[in-house]
Amino acid sequence: MSKLRVEDLERISQRVRKMTLLREGAGRAKITVHMGTCGIAAGARGIMNALMEEIESRGIEDVLLTSSGCAGLCSQEPMITVEVKDQAPVKYVGLTREKVQRILAQHVQGGQVVGEYALARGSERPS
Amino acid sequence: MTEPLNQQYRLNLMLCAGTACVSMKSFAIKARLEEELRRHGLDGEVLVVLTGCNGFCAVGPVMTVMPDGIFYHTLTPHVIPKLVEEHFLKGRPVEKLMFTPPAEKAAVPRLADIGFFANQTLVALRNRGMIDPEKIDEYIGRDGYRALAKALTEMTPESIVETIKASGLRGRGGGGFPTGLKWELCRKAAGDVKYLVCNADEGDPGAYMDRSIVEADPHSVLEGMLIGARAIGAAHGFVYIRAEYPLARKRLQIAIDQAREYGLLGEGILGSDLDFDVSIKQGAGAFVCGEETSLIASIEGRPPEPRQRPPFPAQSGIRGKPTNINNVETWATVAPIIERGAGWFAAMGTAKSKGTKVFSLVGKIQNTGLIEVLMGTPLRKIIFDIGGGIPDGKAFKAVQTGGPSGGCLPASLLDLPVDYESLTEAGSIMGSGGMIVMDEDTCMVDVAKYFVEFTNDESCGKCSACRDGSGALLEILRRICAGEGRLEDLDTLAELCEVIKDASMCGLGQTLPNPVLTTLRYFRDEYEAHIRDRKCPGKVCKPLIRYFIDPEICRGCTVCARDCPSKAITGERKKAHVIDQARCVKCGVCLEACGVFGISAVKIE
Q: Which of B567, B566, B570, B563 minimizes the C-alpha distance to B594?
């Protein structure tokens, strides 16, 4: 590694930016894959992998990817919940790799909810 | 260091690898985590990161799951398989491993919501738990070395000094001398060769602020020193670190090596004309080395005896050259001030004590740990809101700030704001930030004796006031604890203290009477109880207490008799036992052994 110049600091920061954002929990959007037993059986693992690959290949840096348990609608798994900052969360159901690609492009990157795959907006209220 | 970080990880497990957590098997936990993640095929998406001290040492080993911020504590290798399967595979955080405040029933899942963390303000500890201290890129990723770049490209040495002066930063090592002024004195001192020193010779019992900063974020210290080098005109710096801190030393060496590789140490730093390098000087762990002139003597290879000042190190320090010494926390605070401006820093704290201060909170306190709070935060908030109060429902008796050079403050001063002036006025000092909490079972005379024993041991012996004065103090304190004190001893103690303060050359001697003076001031009744009534209210001083068995409670289970090392307990099975006072060595084993229906039949009087 050659000696750094001032502008190299920014270059290194960019290289680790995704990691920094992740650790600060400060993404612009968060995608939750529901990975209960039902979700895993229905292929949530593949959805998770697809998301990771797509996020990587599209060079998306500010989206956090996380998992949670069963969302309570086992018949419609695999499911994800997309939360764009300052917007109501959207649940997508019955997913495939192709649907995930479209959701990423249209909703996460483009800001337009993909109505045909969406189950509902908002989330249940805890009692 | 330069290998591209895998961008695919969706979770980072920030596992604490500070000294306290390491002693509780952090490394074994990391190995187990990685093994289990591999087994579930999660090793490509979940990364285990070893961080420096997270601060919540009481419940270590601790781990924060990012980006969710879920905080797990008291981990052991055997809970890992379940944790990995439940949380990282199935996405169900494990409540059993989350923190539940003692007074509450529900667990608090997120670190940011736990009182211990929520009440802190981080400046010196800004990167704690967020980075792997052994990877320079992670430090740079959190705006590391940006302040240095600013200092080199946008500021003159004079304006750096002015900024530090205007920020109101004062030395975090104990004295509280204004840092900017210290830099200016060294900058203006005549001579081409100047040295910087980072004092990491943290010697106070119970204090580990500096160790934790070096372990968690060594580059923050190096960046501060680099900025100081620019301001002062120094080309070489020493980090004086004690041999008892192997992990801190190792991480610092890694940081120095990585900084050199990036050209952040060496010649022409960041393309500027700044040349600066740092070497580690290992200390042998003598308390007096915390004193500037002793430290300089030690770096030069001489016995660590202080010398008369002036000349101050800023005029004549290492090898007679102008030398600027700051402690670890001070150096770690420099970069944020340069980056965010003097006004930002000066807006925090009190009129004369600006910014934040790191404390190690130890002793009889629920949440033992490392904390950083705004200057001026009341003791009560530190001890109860952050520290979680006193364990086992006991009452608070005193808090000792500033280590052996500090004083013991009573409950009546719990609302005292913690800043340099208030602590000094109360008879204590800020010191480097040790905070030892004591409960009702503490004997304040015994505490004073303990600290004087320490300083008497650590006195270099150069000044007779310190060397013999501490010995004389100790003799009297020992006599009082043995029940042989005389009332006139109290005046003698006070007088001796004044003489030691006045006639000692360095800070060690000048401050060693503080524990005695403050206990005399705030806990005089305990001294008098020892002398007049031959009683130890804290039930600590062995010659003044007596163990006995309450025959009404004792069921004759024989456990105490079996455990007693001096065979002082006799009695028949199922009949009340008796302690033979002549044989009893007052070790307290019987008290620990006895537990009839949760009440002990063994009593102390």
A: B563
**DSSP code at position B332:** H
pTM across the whole model:
0.91
Encode pLDDT of A3-24 as tens digits.
899 999 999 998 888 888 888 8
Residues 6 or more apart whose Cβ sits within 8 Å of residue B469: B496, B499, B500, B503, B504, B509
The mean pLDDT of B196-212, rounded to a whole number, is: 92
Verify whether the Cβ–Cβ distance A13 to B268 is below 8 Å: no
B313-352: burial string, b at 16+ Cβ within 10 Å, e else: bbbbbbeebbbbbbbbbbbbbbbbbbbeebeebeebbbee
Which domain, by its residues, includes A37? 27-121
CB-based contact, A11 to chain B, within 8 Å: no
Q: Looking at domain B136-346, what is its CATH homologous superfamily?
A: NADH-ubiquinone oxidoreductase 51kDa subunit (3.40.50.11540)
Q: Percentage of residues in chain B with pLDDT exceeding 70? A: 98
Q: List the CATH code of the domain at B11-112.
A: 3.40.30.10
CA distance A116 to chain B (A): 26
Asked if A19 contacts B5 with a C-beta cutoff of 8 angstroms, the reply is yes
**A9: contact with B, CB 8 A cutoff:** yes
The string of pLDDT tens digits covering residues B41-62 is 999 889 999 999 999 999 999 9
CATH class label, B546-604: alpha beta
A9·B68 Cβ contact <8 A:
no
* CB pair distance less than 8 Å for A6 and B153: yes
